[in-house]
Amino acid sequence: MAPHDAILGWDEDTNAAAYDAFTRAHPMYNVTSRDLARRAGLSDVGLVVDLCGGAGATARAILDHIPPGARVISVDNAAAMQRVGRRTLIDSRLSWITAPAEHLADHVAHGHIGAVVCNSAIWKTDIAAVFAAVSRVLRPGGRFVFNIGGGFAGIRHPDEQAVSGGPSLNTLIHDVAARDYGYIAPPKSADAPPKLPLETITCELAAAGLAVVDTEIVAQHSTMAEKKAWLSIPVFSRPEGDFTHAQRMRILETAYAQTTPDAPSVTSWLVVVAERREPPA
Length: 281
Ligand SMILES: C[S@@+](CC[C@H](N)C(=O)[O-])C[C@H]1O[C@@H](n2cnc3c(N)ncnc32)[C@H](O)[C@@H]1O
What we know:
The protein is an alpha/beta fold and 281 residues long. The protein is built from eleven helices and seven strands. The protein has a domain at 13-158 and 190-220 and 267-276: 3-Layer(aba) Sandwich (Rossmann fold), CATH 3.40.50. It has a seven-stranded mixed sheet, sandwiched between helices. Helix 5 crosses helix 9 and helix 8 packs across helix 11.
């Protein structure tokens, strides 16, 4: 059973508030959202879907890129995330739908969406179902732009390799948890294949009628201090297992005290731009 103050997921108000506060105080989700919005080719769209849009960090970026008269629909299955977004991001061009990404095609008109953008979430979904739904709602030539965390895609930007000198905050967290709480990390096979390599993504997109038009491995530069703030968001806090959130935060403080706050930290992302194929003539 989960500890009494464990945070179980995205659909919890405490987590949603902490996540939203993080996106406003730190650049991480704004930078990745802006990057995707820029690649989505939004200059002539009428309607854009922000898929797995959470509390609206990506919608904020999209709204800055769309032409006058265009609209954005933010879709997420966590009502708590959208409650924060509805309260803090008031814009008449934006509407919210609480639904799983896999059910997108049940909620928006087919063949009319100019672009679908999905920041920091695709690996949490059933990609075959999501790609099929995205293909159904996109207009021919419309873009589907998303990113995949480097660990899931099995890629690493050279900048990440260059900074990986000392132990990561995650490693220090596991060390502190082992020392102070007798924590034993679940065994992880060093050569386990990545969950979503580009080949898998490309095949799944093609099966749904979507063609990859561009990919890039990008590095996101941050600091140990930002990483610590991110690991304080309940859904991201570590280690996994039978800890209360308060215990995790004590472990994090002890681990963080062994680092330098402005030490660089780099995260790798695989960015994918796909396009809905024109139907055969
Ligand atoms: C890291 S947040 C990203 C939110 C937003 N794109 C941003 O950049 O701030 C991940 C979001 O994905 C949502 N999510 C995860 N799986 C989902 C699914 N199958 N359908 C819809 N939303 C999902 C979560 O509820 C959460 O709001």
